[in-house]
Design a protein that fits this description.
GO terms for molecular function: catalytic activity; iron-sulfur cluster binding; metal ion binding. This is Iron-sulfur (Fe-S) oxidoreductase. It is built from 14 helices and nine strands. The chain is an alpha/beta fold. A nine-stranded mixed beta sheet has the order 6-5-4-3-2-1-7-8-9. α5 (112-115) links the parallel β3 and β4.
């Protein structure tokens, strides 16, 4: 089972408790971004287009642990930016593990071998290495040669030391099903503990706007990939129902509050992918965000999104409500033939509101009003 049994049981029990308590909205995964700074500049990334004073900001250990306590989600995904640039990342991980959290530390792996001695294998901890396909696919995606080989070397080093290692893979419209299938075979040979796969989200500030997938193309691509994967031992670190959704067989609405984001701006509205505003506290985020304004069919920026950060929580909640359905699809795999589920109409979506520059200006004004903190990075 790619998702560890103890994690599956605890997350499932957590979801059941929320349902029994009558909670309509609750978090599953805290998306923690302690910094935006990165040592790569990927063409499809919309997370690093900030002035240096903002890129120099860091969440402290105390900030990160307080966010986990405030949110209460059982899983924490530490993203960025590149988290391993944060000098206090080992203390952040230790503090989260002491709180019983399941941690996925996302990294491009350029610093991973150098930093391995600062971490210890733990049943609730996994490295989550960014790897967008084979050597040529990945190096093209990150806009730099040689990154794939360094990432694979780091993966092997981490596995040799007993760490759980997963990869996260983002696909664009240049993806070829046969090559993706061959890459998935390679993840099996590497002994990876799971792959988190998703179509790319069309970040408005990403340098490359030409190669994001629309929903129809995403479904067709994943059907072609999954068709090739039958019987090949691929491990996905995702719900079977989310994979079935990617193949066009489930009609899901987005659950943006399922993976709330805390970063240097605050609690991000409405999700990890969209910075449409920020709240000072998690309670404020949950209670004052107009959630019905977002998601496919509601908002133009969400029209083509099928990303795990919005839809994985929907799939997990569906699996808890319908365990036999989940078990059936988990055993047989996603359906790759026949009619797809009806898609969500875009007829009534509201137009996009471009607010990035306003948030940057507000943050820069705040920073100019006080001394800049020391950069907690190497």
């Amino acid at each position: 089972m790619p998702v560890p049994l103890n994690q599956a049981i605890r997350v499932g029990a957590y979801v059941v408790r929320q349902h029994l308590a009558g909670r309509k909205r609750y978090p599953l995964v805290l998306m923690l971004e302690p910094l935006f700074r990165c040592n790569l500049a990927c063409a499809g990334c919309g997370k690093i287009d900030y002035p240096d004073p903002i890129l120099n900001q860091r969440l402290s250990v105390e900030d990160c642990l307080a966010a986990a306590d405030e949110c209460g989600a059982p899983v924490v995904a530490i993203a960025g930016g590149e988290p391993l640039l944060h000098k206090e990342m080992p203390q952040i991980v230790e503090g989260l593990l002491a709180r019983g959290k399941f941690i996925y530390l996302c990294t491009n792996a350029l610093l991973l071998e150098k930093k391995l001695d600062q971490y210890k294998p733990h049943k609730n901890f996994a490295w989550d290495v960014h790897l967008d396909g084979d050597r040529d696919m990945h190096d093209h995606s990150v806009s730099q040669g040689g990154v794939y080989d360094r990432a694979v070397a780091a993966i092997k080093a981490a596995k040799a030391r007993g760490f759980r290692v997963c990869v996260n893979t983002t696909l664009f419209d240049t993806a070829e099903p046969a090559r993706v299938a061959a890459f998935m075979d390679e993840t099996v040979k590497l002994g990876l503990d799971g792959v988190m796969i998703s179509p790319g989200y069309a970040y408005e500030r990403a340098p490359d706007q030409q190669h994001f997938l629309n929903r129809r193309k995403s479904k067709e691509l994943f059907r072609e990939i999954f068709r090739r994967g039958q019987g090949r031992g691929w491990k996905f670190n995702q719900s079977a129902l989310f994979l079935d959704f990617l193949a066009g067989n489930q009609r899901y609405l987005c659950t943006p509050w399922g993976k709330p984001t805390r970063n240097v701006f605050g609690w991000q509205r409405p999700c990890y992918l969209l910075g449409e505003g920020y709240a000072k506290t998690f309670t404020e985020l949950m209670e004052t965000t107009d959630w019905d304004q977002y998601g496919t069919g509601n908002y133009e920026k969400c029209a083509d999104c099928m990303v795990h950060s919005g839809y994985e929580a929907t799939a997990v909640m569906d699996a808890v409500r319908n365990p036999l359905k989940h078990m059936r699809i988990a055993l047989r795999g996603p359906r790759t033939e026949g009619a797809m589920a009806p898609d969500i109409s875009l007829a009534n979506q509201r137009p996009a509101d471009y607010v990035f520059n306003r948030h940057v200006q507000e943050r820069m004004a705040q920073l100019h009003a006080k001394p800049e903190p020391v950069d907690a990075a190497d």
